[in-house]
Hints:
Helices cover 32% and strands 16% of the residues. By secondary structure, it is an alpha/beta fold.
Amino acid sequence: xxxxxxxxxxxxxxxxxxxxxxxxxxxxxxxxxxxxxxxxxxxxxxxxxxxxxxxxxxxxxxxxxxxxxxxxxxxxxxxxxxxxxxxxxxxxxxxxxxxxxxxxxxxxxxxxxxxxxxxxxxxxxxxxxxxxxxxxxxxxxxxxxxxxxxxxxxxxxxxxxxxxxxxxxxxxxxxxxxxxxxxxxxxxxxx
Length: 191
């Protein structure tokens, strides 16, 4: 007799963890930095929770999840409970929400846009990451206000893993703005 539980049991446990953490996410507070990540139709597997983990480490304000289903929050090591998540059915709703809050949006695509290391971006920046295989769910030409960024690469690979790319962008943001306490997220200041 096998001691291993069926895969359906593991999926059910992951779904229970997701629901529990999503309920706790309602109490999550923004980090000290004003940047936002927008995850546009990413696969719900390991990358999404790993991005939450990095966003907590780098002090992000929130993460927008666009049409992303339940995922196992275990790889986030608790960060899905601590980094605010906003759920949207489509990119347009996230875009409107961010523009109303005076955010400048940037798409990240391999080989497209200004290099991250030379680009200028304001403290209120939102970085959009598309699906690992299909890319963005929208036509960037339909949003002329969104600027393109790329991470310089020198090898033969076509792109970086999305959680790695997100971590590089967050590091670059914090490298530029993290040392200046005047640029901390205003929602974290005592009232």
